[in-house]
Amino acid sequence: MAASVGLVSGPAVAAGPVAPAGHGVAATTGGNPGKGGSLPGGRTFSSPADRTVRTPLAGSASGAGSGAGSAARTGAAAQAQGAVGDAYLAIDLEGRGTTAHSIELRTIVTGEAAALDISIDWGDGAKDQVAVSSSGSDLRYTKHQYAKVGKYAVTVTVKDTTNGVQAVNRLDFVTTGSEYTAHAPTRLLDTRSGLGAAQAKVAGRSSVALKVGGAAQVPAGVSAVVLNVTATNAAGAGHVVVQPHSYGFDEGSNLNYTAGQTVANQVIVPVGEDGFVHLVNGGWDSVDLIADVTGYFTASVASGYTTLSPVRAADTREGIGTAKGQVPGYGSFGIDVAGRGGVPQGATAVALNLTVTNPRAAGHLTAYPGGQAAPTTSSLNFSAGQTVANSVIVPVGPDGKITVRNGSWDRADVVVDVVGYYSTDSRSALVAIAGPYRVIDTRKDSWGRKAGPVPARTFLPERFDSDTTNSDKDGWVLNTTVTNTTGAGFLSVTADPNTWPDYVKGTAVTPQRPVSSSVNWTPGATVPNLVQTSGGKGGIIDFWNQGWQDIDLIVDLIAWYQTV
């Protein structure tokens, strides 16, 4: 039985939600037990008090004060005093990225004057200034939002007019959010040939380190990277986790494989400060791993993301977006994407769900910019008769097109759904977490939901944001896996039109059944795919089981996009 690809058939069945699994993922700030990672938060930057620079205040006689109690100061206090009088004055700074574009600054001022003037220069031309009347010390938290991602020097100046002293400390801050730059598909890792690592299979329960920052024209200091990761020649079943650190074999995955299978999945992963990512073989048997870079994110202005409701851009079975009929072996076809389906002219890249179905032989698909030669890398691997999908980010060619090539020697049908795009006009930036963070596993009991599969022809709503009616998350990046399948089918992942209070009060409306597909499966298969989707105004995402048999669903949070 062939798997369906986003086309609902059979008698109409009233869709209804199963017991919701929502638990406010984005509201969680604690660690991720067993994985060594945590949800942001955001990275913390600091400049301790001993970096304070003290100078005489302009207009004062000498900057010297009464010095009461200063003789007892030691350590950071003594360093903060310096040679300017004997009045103690020091500034301790700590900054944390709370959203893609914002900083929360903790300022601790310790001094001896009865009044202080505090000025914060945020490094983007904006300033905050306060006057403090106290014992000479002050603790405050101040928030600031930057219009653009980037690196900013935050300077805090404190004036003690009583003692004629000025103190200055500076914090170098990098926004949590980062923007996308397309990269020509380039192979960085192939353990079969020794490219990027030793020429050997990755042993079970071990990892391989892959240098990406500073490699293949990916800049050093890159925040996150987009990889197409392929597992092949597997000695047994297992899974792969891609993360910025080498440890951790617990919950969370990017790619699942079976013995002898060749399977690929797109991965968006933060890069460690050393420029490496680590591919962890979570199985017990050895496997060859391949990784192709297709883009990267940096904390600098490039292209931001805009999510779309899935739009079918091409379907060779129906003649949508291209000629009707299977794509010949080694044949290709172009798709107009710019200026269509919500994608504007000038978009730099599009996010796609690329699906092959009814292939007559094993092979692969490659998606690449229009007007260019086909690269030697692959976007999707398949076997004869298999229906399989993969998420792909593809640069848009100068002609406004992308091209899809059938790398098999025989014919196949191809389906392309556009789920979003990147452009220089968007400031929605990526916030990536330290590794896949499991938020749904229907095989296990969770808060608000007992273990049990998602019934056929129903949907599971999941709350990814707090109880909001105006979510500040523009899109979510998820690794979605379907397992324990007894029949063929497909999964649709879409934004829910309700808010969580609507579900709590029982007033939620039934969402319209989508027709696009995110994951396709056949009986007995475990199939993952990366999904980029909006969460709507309430930050709720619906997972639709469009098959006629129950399934188990596993969802790992990878990242989100934010304009704020």
- Cα distance spanning the termini: 47 Å
Low-pLDDT runs of 5+ residues are: 7-15, 21-38, 62-83
The percentage of residues in β strands lies in over 45%
Overall pLDDT: 88
Largest sheet, in brief, is: 5 strands, antiparallel
Helical segment tally?
Answer: 2
| Helical content class | under 10%
Number of strands: 35
Q: Looking across the biggest beta sheet, what order are the strands in?
A: 4-11-10-7-8
Taking all Cα atoms into account, the compactness measure Rg is 27 Å
Shape: elongated
Q: Oligomeric form of this entry? A: single chain
- Which structural class should the secondary elements be placed in? mainly beta
Describe this structure in words.
The chain is mostly beta strands and 564 residues long. Helix content is 2%, strand content 46%. It is built from 2 helices and 35 strands. The chain has helices at 76-81, 500-505, and strands at residues 31-32, 37-38, 44-47, 53-56, 89-96, 102-111, 115-121, 127-133, 138-145, 151-160, 165-174, 179-190, 206-211, 224-232, 238-243, 255-257, 263-270, 276-281, 288-298, 304-315, 332-336, 349-357, 363-369, 380-382, 388-395, 401-406, 413-423, 429-441, 459-463, 473-483, 489-495, 519-521, 527-533, 540-545, 552-562. The strands form 9 sheets. The chain has a 5-stranded antiparallel beta sheet, with no helix packed on it. Strands 3-5-6-9 form a 4-stranded antiparallel beta sheet. Strands 12-19-14-17 form a 4-stranded antiparallel beta sheet, with no helix packed on it. A hairpin with a 5-residue loop joins strand 5 (89-96) and strand 6. The chain is elongated. The model is unreliable at 7-15, 21-38 and 62-83 (pLDDT under 50).
